[in-house]
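Budget justification note: compute hours in this period were largely spent on complex prediction jobs such as the one shown. Inputs:
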Amino acid sequence: MARERGNGGRRQARGNVAEPERSVAEHVRERQRFVAEREANRLARPEEQPQANLDHANRKLSGVSTTPRGMLIKKGAGSNHLSQEWCGPFSVARQMIAKREEARLEREAELDEAQGNHPLDQVMLDLANEQKRKAHPALQWKSRPNLTNGDSIYAKRQKRQDVKLNEQKIPSLFQLCTRFLVDNFDCVDALGNVDSSIRAAIAKELVGSNKLDAQAFHAIAEVGIEALELVDCSSITQEDLCDSLEKLLPSGLRFLVLDQCGRCFGPQAANLIVKARVKNLFALAIGGAYVLSDADAASLVRTLSSTLSSIEFKACPMLGKETASAISESYSSATSAKLLELTLEDLPLDAESIASLTAIPAAFQNIQSLGLRFVDGLTDQNVDEILRMSGPTLEALDLSGNHQLTDSILSSIRQNCSGLRSLSLEGLKQLSSEGLEALFLHVPGMALPPMLRRLNLANCDHEAVSDEVIQLATQAAIRRQGDTDVHVANMLGGLVFLNIQGSTRLTDIGLEHLVHACGDSLVEVNFSFCTTVTDKGLGYLVDKCGNQLSKVQIWGNAQLSDEFLDGHRRVDDPNVEVVGAWIKKSTSRSVR
Amino acid sequence: MTEENKVFVKLVSAEGQDFFVDQEVATTASNTIRCMLEGSFREAQDKVIRFPDISSYVLERVIKYMHYKAQYSNSNSRLPQFVIEPECALELLIAAKYLDC
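Corresponding output:
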C-alpha cells in the first residue's frame, strides 16, 4: 500500500514522534473505527450541526466527510485506543472509493506540480472555457427567472397544468355534440348524409362508452357509405356484419377498416366478400380476426386484387404461407391494381412464408409504404430481398419489433431506398451505433443517405444512438454535406418527428446538432429514458426551435428539474406540451 | 377591451338571416372563421361570411356556443352545462365539424 507508506514517510519528515511502523490491518481498523464512531455520533445527535471544518486544509484532522471524497490522511497521535474491530462492507467500500479519489487527486497534484505555475495559466483556462462555450451554445442556456421559487412542488405542477387546462376546460362543440349523440344513441335510427370522418368519430365514441351493439352498428353501417371504420368490433356478431356487408358492398364501399374483430370477421364474412365480386374496394384492414383462416384470407386477396391497393393484416393468428403467396401472385399479374401499402403485423409467418411473399418481384413494384412488424420469419436476407424489389418507390418503412434483424438491413436500406421519408426501427436491439452512423454518413460515390422526415429509433440498444448518429441523421435530413457552417435557410426538409427513447449516449451536444439542422421543422420529439440529457440542453432545444415544436416527451428523466420545466421560453404557451415530467421534489439535485 | 374597439362580423345563414357577432368571440371559438378572416379573402374585407349549408336555427345555436365559450374561458367559476336540443344535434354536429369549433 504505497499510500500508507507514503503517509508514514511524511509523518517522519514532519518530525513527529517516530512511531513504530504499523501494520496495514491496523491502519485499516483505525480508519474504520474512526469513521464508524463519527457516523454514529452524527446519527445519535441529529440536532447537532456538523461543524464546519477545514479538513482539507488541516492535515492533522481527518478529512473524511460523508461524501467519499476526502483525503484519508493519518490523524496523528491520539487514536491509540482501538482494540475493537469494526468491519463493515459499507465502510470498506467507502474507504475504497475515498482511496480512489485520493489517488486521483494525487495524480492531479503531481501533474500540476510538473507543469508549474505560470502567471498566464488562468488566462489560458479562461480562453479554453470561452472556446468551449462558443462551440457548445447549450452550455450557456439560462432558464428564465422564475417567480415560483417559493412554491411547493404541487403548486408548481398545478401552475404548469393550468396553462394547458385553460385551453381544454371547455369542450369543443364537436365533442359536446358527439357525446350528446352517443348518450342518446338508442333514439338514433340513422345518421343520414354524414361525412365519414364524423361517422368514424361517433363510432369511436360509441366504442369508448361500450354502446356499440347491433342496433348502433346498423345505424353506423348505413347503405351508401364510402368507409366503414371501426376501432373495436368485438361486440358485433358475424351475422350482423355479414348482413351489413351484403348491403354495403354493392353500394360503393371503398374502405373497410375493422380493428379488433374477434369473432365477427370469419369465414362467413370472407366468403361473402369473395362472392360479391365488388369492383370498388380500395383498402382493406383487418385486425385481430382469430377465426379467419389462411385459405379464406388468401381467396380474399386473390379476388380483391383487381381493385385493392392497401392491405393490412394485424394479429390474425391463422394466416400464413397461403396468404403470403396469394399477395405475391395476384399483384404480379397484369390485371391487378397497384399494391401501394402493405402492413403485416404480428402474424406467424415463418421464413418459408416470407420467401413465398418475395417470390415475384413484380408484386412490389409500386409499393409506397411497407410495414412488417413483429413478424418472426424475417431475417436479414429476407429484408434485403424485399428492399431490393420495393426500394425505388418506397417512402415509408417500418420494421419495428423484429429483434432478430442486425446491421446488415441498414446497408440494404442505404443501397435501395433512396426516396425514403419515414423510417421506424423501434425495438431492434441488435443495431449498433456504427451501423447507424454508416447509414447516414455521406460518402462520395455511394448513394445519398435517406432524407427522412420521421425517424423512430426508440428502444434500440441503449448505446446505439449516439450524438454522432443524430448529427449525421439530421444533416442527411436536410441534405447538407460535410460539416459546413453555412447559415442558409433550410428549405430542404428536415426532421419532423424524432423518437430516440432509451438512448444513454445522447447528450446536449446531440441536441445542439438537432437544433442546428432541424430547428425549423421539428414538431415532436421523444427523449424518454435518456439519462444523459440535461436541463440546459433541453432548454436550449425548446428555446431555439420555432413555434412549430408542439410535443416533448421526457418520461423517466429524473435529472431534469424545474430549471427546464419552468424556465424554458414557452412556459406560457399552451401549444407546447411537455409530457412526462418527473414527479418528485425537483428542486433538490439529489439524483445525479 | 373598450366598447369602441369592438368589430363585428356578419354571419349569413342558408335562409339569408343575418347574425352579428363580435369578431374576437368568433375567431377564438372557430378555427375556420379565424382563417377566413385572417387571410386575404373577400370575407376579411367585407366582414361578411356566408354559410349556404347551415340553416338559421343551427347557426343560432353555434353562436350561442361561441358566447358560452367566450364567457367561461378564463373564469374559475363553475361551468354550467351547454344544453343541446335533440332535434338539431346531428346538424349541429355537422356544422361544428365544418367550423372546427
